[in-house]
Design goal:
- With 187 residues, this protein is an alpha/beta fold.
- The protein has a five-stranded parallel β-sheet with strand order 2-3-1-4-5, sandwiched between helices.
- The structure holds adenosine-5'-diphosphate (ADP).
């Protein structure tokens, strides 16, 4: 199985590119954000806990998201592999993912990183708020928290995957089509 990680700050265009990638490369799209929003919509105990954190721009506990990922890995094995979108988001999650895959003699295939500047993050998320109506997109203070959470908790993953020779960076500042083409050349 292939395990691609789609990496980048909030609003980098991960969701948009994921749609192209899953079709082109026969991957199963796994977005921890989408999975959590489903739990919230269904008002599950997990969803109720997650909602408070998400609405403050904070991360959901590592064990919770890794548990969701583990379930998916065992139940959905029909495609050529997985496209992990929004996961891992902390060093601990990356370590737990490595351990999980190692059990089956597997490993992360590649990290595809979409890079954009903080100013552009604001612009894109504010725009998305009008289209998708996500509550965590509506409040500038929450967006700011998500950006800070990204720099503090998630950005260290760049070094983690560089050290392992798995990191590929793409300029997320280009048009949607140009980003998609850049991705296709490194897959
Ligand atoms: P974005 O596109 O803004 O990065 P996502 O849809 O990926 O948003 O995630 C929305 C929220 O869900 C995050 O801000 C975070 O609170 C929570 N979340 C998603 N993935 C994870 C994860 N791997 N670990 C912890 N929290 C997560």
């Amino acid at each position: 199985m292939k395990y691609y990680i789609l990496f980048g700050p909030p609003g980098a265009g991960k969701g948009t590119q994921a749609k192209f990638m899953v079709e082109q490369f026969n991957l199963r799209h796994v977005s921890t954000g989408d999975l959590l929003r489903r739990e919230i919509a269904n008002k599950t105990p997990l969803g109720i806990e997650a909602q408070k954190l998400i609405e403050n721009g904070l991360l959901v506990p590592d064990e919770v998201v890794v548990g969701m990922i583990e379930n998916l890995f065992t139940s959905e094995r029909t495609s050529a592999g997985f496209l992990l979108d929004g996961f891992p988001r902390t060093i601990r999650q990356a370590q737990m993912l490595d351990e999980l895959l190692k059990k089956n003699n597997e490993e992360v295939t590649k990290v595809v990183s979409l890079m954009i500047e903080d100013e552009l993050i604001f612009e894109r998320i504010t725009h998305r708020a009008q289209i998708e109506g996500r509550s965590d997109d509506a409040d500038p203070a929450v967006i700011q928290n998500r950006i800070e959470t990204y720099h503090q908790k998630t950005e260290p993953l760049i070094e983690y995957y560089k050290e392992r020779g798995k990191y590929e960076e793409i300029d997320g500042n280009q048009t949607i089509e140009a980003v998609a083409e850049s991705i296709a050349t490194i897959m």
